[in-house]
Amino acid sequence: METSLVFFSQLSMCEPKEKTIFKLIHGSGKEETSKEAKIRAKEKRNRLSLLVQKPVFYDDTPSSRSGQLAKETRVSPEEAIKWGESFDKLLSHKDGLETFTRFLKTEFSEENIEFWIACEDFKKSKDPQQIIRKAKAIYEKFIQNDAPQEVNLDFHTKEIISKSITQPTLHSFDVAQSRVYQLMEQDSYMRFLKSDIYLDLTEGRSQRPTNLRRRSRSFTYNEFQDVKSDVAIWL
C-alpha cells in the first residue's frame, strides 16, 4: 500500500512536467507556423508590389538586367568601325544605339541617352493631348529638380522648359536635347570609342558581361498608362 502511494505521488509530480513539455512543443509549433505565415504574407506583398510598380516596361532586378547586357550583339566588325566615324552614325544605327546605352550604364549616366530617345519619340507626337501627356512625363522624369533621372542642364534652360510645360509644343525640349547631345558627343562618345565594349566589337571578340547598378526609383505603370505611343523605348 505504501509502495502504491509512492508510485502515484511520483506520477503526480511528473505529470506537470509532461504537460509543460507538451505545451512548449505545442506552443513552438504555433509560433513557427505564425512565423511561416508572416514570411509567406510578406513574400506575397513583395510580389504584388513588383507587379504594380514594374509590370510592363522592364524587369529591374540585378540578375535580369545583367543578363540582358551580357547578351551578345550580332554586329560585324566593319559595321562597328563605322560607328567611330561620327556620333550621329552611332545613334542612327539600332545596334549602335543599344551598345552605346550599355556603355553609359557602366558609367551610371544612361539618363542622357534615355532623355535623348524620349525627345526623339516626343517629336513624333501628333495628337495635342498626347503632346501634353508626353511633355509632362519627360519633364517629371528628366528635367524637374530631384527628378528620378535628372539630366545635367543649366538653370536658364530648365526655367524656360518649366514655364512652357503647361502649353508644350513639339520644340519644347529642343534646346535641352541639343545640350545633352553635345555633352554625350564631346565626353561620353570619346570614352566609348576606347572602351572594351566597343573595341571587342571592332575586333570581333565575344562580348563581356557588364555589371550594373540598380535604379533607385522607376516610374510605375500608372504614371505612364496614358502614354501609349512608343513609350517602351524610353526605358
TrEMBL record:
Family annotation (InterPro entries): RGS, RGS_sf, RGS_subdom1/3, RGS_subdomain_2
Superkingdom assignment: Eukaryota
Record keyword Protein biosynthesis present? no
Q: What sequence ranges are listed for the domain RGS?
A: 86-202
Assigned keywords, A-Z: Signal transduction inhibitor
Tell me the first and last residues of the signal peptide.
none
Q: Does the keyword Phosphoprotein apply?
A: no
Record-linked PROSITE patterns: RGS (PS50132)
Any idea what this protein is called? RGS domain-containing protein
Where does this protein come from, organism-wise? Rangifer tarandus platyrhynchus
Species lineage:
Eukaryota, Metazoa, Chordata, Craniata, Vertebrata
